């Protein structure tokens, strides 16, 4: 779970991202659909040269889907991910969030 890392991430984000909702209707709608289902999403611009746009997904807010998503990952890939391997678990969880986000456009 996210614990103190989420708090640190949120604090750090305040200084690195200017929060702003996307101009694009479809992107806003996709993000809102995820927020409506409990996913924390922050959008805006990185406060670095060029000010690139950013969409940040909070992995901790999707943790209640862990078992379902790990089962889906196993069923599709037949690759097991040990629960203690946080980097691999986070990669699968992030991948599921991205698939969900992109799926909102179809």
Characteristic terms for this protein:
single chain; 106 residues; alpha+beta; 4 helices; globular; disordered N terminus
Largest sheet: 3 strands, antiparallel
What quaternary form is this? single chain
Shape estimate:
globular
Rounded to the nearest angstrom, the radius of gyration is 15 Å
Report strand %. Answer: 5-15%
Which blocks of ≥5 consecutive residues have pLDDT under 50?
1-8
> What's the average pLDDT?
89
How are helices and strands ordered from N to C? HEHEEHH
What is the number of strand segments? 3
Strands in their spatial order, largest beta sheet = 1-2-3
Helix proportion? 40-55%
Q: What is the count of helical runs?
A: 4
Distance, first to last CA:
30 Å
Task: Assign the structural class, choosing from mainly alpha, mainly beta, alpha/beta, alpha+beta, or little secondary structure.
Answer: alpha+beta
Would you kindly provide a written description of the structure presented here, covering whatever features stand out?
It is a single chain. This protein has 106 residues and is α+β, with helices and mostly antiparallel strands. The protein has helices at residues 3-16, 25-36, 66-77, 86-103, and strands spanning 17-19, 41-46, 53-57. It has a three-stranded antiparallel beta sheet with strand order 1-2-3. Strand 2 (41-46) and strand 3 form a beta hairpin. Helix 3 packs across helix 4 (86-103).
């Amino acid at each position: 779970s996210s614990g103190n890392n989420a708090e640190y991430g949120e604090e750090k984000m305040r200084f690195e991202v200017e929060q702003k909702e996307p101009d694009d209707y479809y992107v806003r709608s996709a993000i809102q659909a995820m927020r409506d289902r409990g996913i924390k999403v922050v959008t805006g611009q990185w406060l670095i040269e060029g000010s690139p746009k950013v969409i940040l997904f909070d992995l901790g807010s999707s943790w209640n889907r862990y078992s379902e998503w790990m089962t889906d990952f196993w069923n599709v890939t037949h690759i097991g991910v040990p629960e203690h391997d946080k980097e691999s678990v986070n990669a699968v969880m992030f991948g599921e969030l991205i698939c969900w986000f992109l799926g909102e456009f179809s």
